[in-house]
Amino acid sequence: MAFYSRMREDIANARRHDPAARSGFEIAVAYSGLHAVWWYRIAHRMWRAGLKTPARFVSQFARFLTGIEIHPGATIGRRFFIDHGMGVVVGETTWVGDDVMVYHGVTLGGKGSGRGKRHPTIQNGVTVGAGAKVLGSITIGARSVIGANAVVIHDAPADSVLTGVPARARPRTGHEQIPGDDWLDPALYI
Q: What share of the chain in percent tops pLDDT 90?
């Protein structure tokens, strides 16, 4: 997919996830999470082309501008959305699937200093709440929800809800509030 087509897809995805978004222009200009992902894509291409040090410079420049650090060696799928963004860290061997959403203060980090896979695998459709830490070479199953400030250190099956320190997985019931879901009645807040 061409870079500009992917940008348009990202902007549309942000509009789906953020009810405060007023226009595509506003999203393109003012959403630091989107900017971090766009810079990541440039750095990732450089990384894959063997330009590792320049790729790290680009990623650090993006961190300086956005407050979001995404290692250029990470693998990130389509429609990755970072809401609010500040303090998000994505490690080198992290793998993120499509349609994943993370909030501010999230760490997708490693355990240990050895070589090889040290960071988590986040499958498609996962939502990671503010301040959550997902650590080590673990797999979070598709469509799971990780609660705010959870510390996840074990694998979780698909369609799980993970909360606590350390986080424990339980099956989703379908009643959890997930950004973008339409079940929440706005009249409750009037």
A: 77
What is the mean pLDDT of the segment spanning 110-119? 86
**Residue that has been written with the tokens 């998000």 in this structure:** 88
Confidence tier at 176 by pLDDT (50, 70, 90): low
Q: Which pTM value belongs to this model?
A: 0.85
